[in-house]
C-alpha cells in the first residue's frame, strides 16, 4: 500500500472512532487573515488547504489559504451572504438575506458566481441531504427539504403536540446517516430529525444557550457553538449527552461558526464579530 493511501485510511479510522470527550484539544497558532476587515459570519472548509468565509458586512465570500491566511479569491454578492454549504471541492452554495440560494463555483482556487434560485421564505441555514438540500427559515419558522432547483419537497409543521418546535432556526448539520440537526437560538435547543423530518431527539440544557454553528465529526459526535455561554459543546446522540469541550478558559467568546480539518485533526472557531482571526485547536 502506498504511503498516501495509508495516511488517508489512518485519518478515516481516526475520524470514525475518535472519542472527543477523551481527547485533548491543544491551542495552536490562530489563523490570522491577511485580508483586513473581514467580519466572519460563517465558514466552511472546502479542502484540506482552503476555507471559505462569508462576510456579511462587506457582502462577500472569501476563499482563504488555511495554512497562511492569504486571500486566494473573493466575490461580492448582490445580497448579504449568510450560511455557506460545501457541495463538493468545486462548488458551494450560500444563502442570502434576500431569500435566495446562490451557487458558487471554484476553478483553480478562483470563486465565480454561478446560478441562483429564490425561496419564498426568509432562508437562513442550508446543508446537503443526498441530492437535495435542507434549509432553515423564518416567516414561517421551520425546516424544509428542497431540490437543487429550489422546489419544495417536504416541510415541517412548527406546532407539534401543542408545542412550537421552532422560534429562530439557524444552522444545520447532516451527518452521513441521513439525520438532520438544526440549531434554534430562540428555543435554545438542537433538534434531530430523520430524513422525512420526523423529530428523533431534542438537546437542551443550562450550558446550551443561543446555539448557532454546528458541525459533525462523525455520526455520533457533533460540535455546536453555544454563543451565550461561551462554550463549544460535544453532542453524543447515542447517549443523549452533551459535554462542554471548550469554554472561556480556552479563549472562547461568543462562538458562532466551526470548521474541522480531519486530515490535520484541527478545529477552527470563529466568534461573533470576529475580525481577521480564527481560533485553532489540535486534537491529540
What is the overall shape? globular
How much helical structure, as a percent, in the residues? under 10%
Mean pLDDT across all residues, rounded?
90
Largest sheet: 4 strands, antiparallel
Number of strands: 26
Nearest-angstrom radius of gyration? 18 Å
CATH class membership: Mainly Beta
Total helix count?
Answer: 1
Report how far the terminal alpha carbons are from each other.
26 Å
State the order of secondary-structure elements, H for helix, E for strand.
HEEEEEEEEEEEEEEEEEEEEEEEEEE
CATH homology group? TolB, C-terminal domain
Question: Into how many domains do the coordinates divide?
Answer: 1
Features:
284 residues; mainly beta; Neuraminidase; four-stranded antiparallel β-sheet; 26 strands; 5% helix
How does this model look, in words?
This protein has one helix and 26 strands. With 284 residues, the chain is mainly beta. The chain has a single domain (32-283), classed as Neuraminidase (6 Propeller).
Give the SSE layout.
Elements: H1 3-17, E1 25-32, E2 40-45, E3 50-55, E4 60-65, E5 71-76, E6 81-88, E7 91-96, E8 100-107, E9 110-118, E10 122-129, E11 132-138, E12 142-146, E13 152-155, E14 159-160, E15 163-164, E16 169-173, E17 180-184, E18 189-193, E19 199-203, E20 211-218, E21 221-226, E22 231-236, E23 241-246, E24 255-261, E25 266-271, E26 277-283
Antiparallel strand pairs: 1-26, 2-3, 3-4, 4-5, 6-7, 7-8, 8-9, 10-11, 11-12, 12-13, 14-15, 16-17, 17-18, 18-19, 20-21, 21-22, 22-23, 24-25, 25-26
